[in-house]
Specification:
The structure is a single chain. By secondary structure, this protein is mainly α. It folds into two domains: 2-26; 35-115, Cytochrome Bc1 Complex, Chain D, domain 2 (Orthogonal Bundle), CATH 1.10.760. The chain contains six helices and no strands. α3 crosses α6 and α5 (81-90) crosses α6 (104-115). The radius of gyration is 22 Å and the shape is elongated. Residues 43-118 form the Cytochrome c domain.
Length: 118
């Protein structure tokens, strides 16, 4: 009787494994979710400065000198616009995600603006 129960459990476990194998996302899909694609925008420094003033200075300081968050005055020498876009979109460590607060184009504009700070 125990052999039948163990065999049945084994078959159910194998079936579940097969279902999960075909329904879970693949590596490429996970990579796409983890790396947001930056939309093409034309840099508007004035608009970027306004967005930063309204959303970023409480953590990064009014001159981007750092406060709770890191200094961003020369962040463009360390990170590309695409990398900055990903961090602003998804968040990073103590940095919150802004994907639900700002439009993709606004985030891209800020990323381009910050990438020029070298």
């Amino acid at each position: 009787m125990q052999k039948w129960i163990m065999s049945g459990l084994f078959i159910v476990a194998c079936g579940l494994a097969v279902v999960l194998m075909f329904s879970l996302p693949g590596k490429e899909e996970v990579a796409q979710e983890n790396k947001p694609q930056m939309p093409e925008v034309t840099l508007s420094a004035e608009q970027a400065e306004t967005i930063v003033a309204n959303n970023c200075i409480s953590c990064h300081g009014d001159q981007l000198q750092g406060n709770v968050g890191p200094n961003l005055q020369k962040i463009g020498a360390e990170l590309s616009a695409e990398q900055l876009y990903g961090i602003i979109t998804k968040g990073n460590g103590n940095m919150p995600s802004f994907k639900d607060k700002l439009k993709e184009e606004e985030i891209a504009n800020v990323a381009l603006w910050l990438a020029e700070k070298k």
